[in-house]
Design a protein that fits this description.
328 residues; mainly alpha; 17 helices; 5 strands; 55% helix; globular
Length: 328
């Protein structure tokens, strides 16, 4: 269809994309996967090769580093002492994606030898909880994914302080902390601010804009409608799947597709599967640790007692509890 080809030819191939922390954390988790299975990594690499300008912002860097540090606490507090007991099925329920990635890949021939080795792929483990970790992670992300860095001051120069403050207050009920709410508010406002600075136009369709926030974030959308309305009702988020579609169909991306033919993702399944809630998982891990301290005879006695309780549980309370936690 000539009009469709013309549409993609007119669309800017040099997108300016603020990459979300959700995509970057997922990309880190794919470190040990075979190249064709690195969906997030491949998408970022192909996008940069195809002309997109990928931006790493300070709020996103802080969130990715925070995820790494929280994952380290999760591993040390919940997994480390009983790592030898963690099966693949148990690993699937671990709340932190980076800890899951380590547990999935630790037995692979080229996998990480231990948790410290896994973390050290991104930052020095000894520096993880020190200030220098921020610069190390920044260097890793910008060099690995051909990204450019923008500080909080750079973003603030694009935004109106009162606009960011108002949106931050709206997002407080959605985000766990005020800082996370402020980070998202700053990202939203920075997209519109950069569009204004670059005098971008959307005369043909909303996809005529170059500047977007590339993320699968969705919880904040209903809280940003007023901001969107104030900016000609133009959206500010680009879904990774749209970016893939663009790269798959845009005529000017033909050479890129050929270059990455063996690893071009057909879809970007970024949503993680449902698993038991964090509180339940931690409770089970605590019980496993307690069981580790018993002798074999004591463990057998406890197992027999539990089995007998199940046999006589005519109310099937175990089934109700499992259903409540989404396991059946």
């Amino acid at each position: 269809e000539p009009r469709l080809v013309d549409y993609f030819q007119r669309m800017a191939s040099d997108f300016y994309l603020y990459v979300g922390s959700d995509l970057l954390v997922r990309a880190l988790s794919e470190r040990y996967l075979e190249a064709p299975n690195r969906l997030c990594r491949n998408t970022l690499l192909i996008s940069a090769q195809g002309g997109a300008e990928l931006i790493l912002t300070q709020p996103v860097l802080d969130e990715v580093l925070g995820n790494l540090r929280a994952s380290d606490f999760e591993f040390r507090n919940q997994i480390e002492l009983i790592e030898h007991r963690i099966t693949t099925g148990m690993a699937r329920e671990v709340p932190k994606i980076l800890v899951r990635a380590y547990l999935y890949n630790r037995s692979e021939p080229r996998g990480p030898t231990n948790w410290q080795a896994f973390v050290s792929q991104f930052v020095s483990y000894d520096s993880l909880h020190r200030p220098e970790a921020e610069q190390q992670l920044r260097n890793y992300l910008t060099s690995t994914f051909s990204m450019k860095y923008r500080s909080n001051d750079d973003l603030a120069a694009l935004t109106k302080p009162e606009e960011v403050e108002t949106l931050t207050k709206r997002l407080l009920g959605v985000k766990k902390t005020e800082q996370l709410a402020r980070n998202d508010a700053l990202m939203c406002c920075a997209v519109y601010g950069h569009r204004r600075r670059q005098a971008e136009s959307s005369a043909l369709t909303e996809f005529g804009y170059k500047t977007w926030w590339l993320t699968n974030e969705s919880a904040i959308l209903k809280h940003t409608r007023e901001l969107q309305t104030a900016n000609l009702n133009a959206r500010y988020m680009m879904r990774p799947d749209f970016l893939l579609n663009f790269l798959a169909f845009a005529p000017q991306a033909a050479e890129v597709r050929k270059m990455f033919a063996s690893v071009f993702p057909s879809s970007l399944g970024i949503q993680l599967s449902k698993r038991m809630d964090e509180e339940t998982f931690h409770k089970i891990m605590a019980e496993v640790k307690e069981a580790e301290s018993y002798e074999d005879g004591r463990r057998l006695a406890i197992m027999a007692d539990c089995a007998d309780k199940l046999k006589t549980d005519f109310t099937r309370r175990y089934r109700i509890e499992m259903a409540r936690h989404g396991q059946i």
